[in-house]
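Bench log. Compound arrived from synthesis this morning; before running ITC I wanted a structural hypothesis for how zinc ion sits in the protein. Inputs:
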Amino acid sequence: MLKTTLTVVLSLLASFAHAAATPSGEILTLPHKEVTLTNGVRVFMVKYPSPHVVAYELPVHVGSRNEVEEGKTGFAHFFEHLMFRGTKHLSGKAFGDLYTKLGCENNAWTSYDMTNYHGVVASDNLAKILEAEADRFINLEFSEKVLRDEAGAVLGEYNKDVAQPEFLLEEKLMATAFEKHPYSHTTMGYKDDVLKYTERYKDVWPFFRRYYRPSNVSIVLVGDVDFAKNLKDIETYFGAWKDPELAPSAIPVEPEQTSAREAQVKLDKPTQTRITVAYKVPAFTTKNTDVAALDLLAEMLFSVTSDFQKEFRFEKKWLDSVSASGNESVDPGIWTIGLRLSEAGEGKNAELIAAVERVIASVRDKQPDAERLAATKKRFRNAAITSWFGAPDSLADRIAIYTNFEHDVGVLNRMFERLGEVGPGTINEVAKRYLTDARKTTVTLSGTRGI
Ligand SMILES: [Zn+2]
């Protein structure tokens, strides 16, 4: 199954910033319906003009942020794999064959904040998919041998990831920026914990009951939906599911960061130098304009059209990649700038870090140009229209992600309302509040020589 790394998650989650509010303030104008079943399962359905096809997603409100127990990091991701390994009624193979027979490619991913099961299916076959999904969510069952096999697959995935410099940079960044909160480890968890998954057969079941519960699960349908019929099927298959006795574990709160942090990763092989500069920022919310302003800041200061990229990537050619992401996470998280140095830029670490800090200081010191901000908002709008609304599964993905933050589909419209409200003064205030030295973590990865 796919694993979503921090970079992917942040860029996925930040993409809302790629749109501005319509004149009415609404971005979701397609016919839609949302219902919460009596057991707590939330259902979001959107009619999208894709004849005969429905994209479905079952997001579960559990990610590596919930991994609070020692020795059990990476469990949300491990569990994502186990969800494909059989039920009381079907073996893992029979479960997979059923989807193939129905012409449905299904997959899943895990992030810091959620686990998401998804696929695209002919609308005539949707009821059968809902039945199969309910079966694994309610009746998951597999042997200890199956768990050991899957533990081997996850270890293989870890070993593949660990060969990537970006993964090592992410591990170090999260471990440096977070001391108490489980964001301190990646969704893959620590290797020592992954190595012990083979012994965890007894431990996975309490995890299943704690988090795979009706009040923690949503069903998103986008495409050729029939509100009444689809809802009736959902009630048939998921309606009798009850919340178990075990409650989700409390998540430790990260203390306020009060001074700048730095860390290095040294690789014993040649690789390009990479630098990440991150700032602690608040949790996702549409109650104020903070998150919208932070997303706009990332785009305005470091996107491909920014003065920073013009100078350091296109003119001096010190960098061959620049990424920037606003924060969108369930708990307070980070806002990051990522740099990858080209051959010409090797050794320019200090100059580049100073340049990033100068750019950020410029918006703390004064309000940005109003026209530039307006142009940034416009670019966001254009990009959002294509990335969100280009296909039913893209829209289903957005709904799954954002309803994981705020549990109603209105969150999409509120995000764009907040974005519309951001002015030059908001940008300046938000930069002063969050993009400060005391909230900063800088991590550098380098190899044995320049390239
Ligand atoms: Zn995986």
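What the model suggests: The CA atoms of residues 23 and 331 lie 31 Å apart. The longest strand covers residues 333-341.
ITC booked for Thursday regardless.
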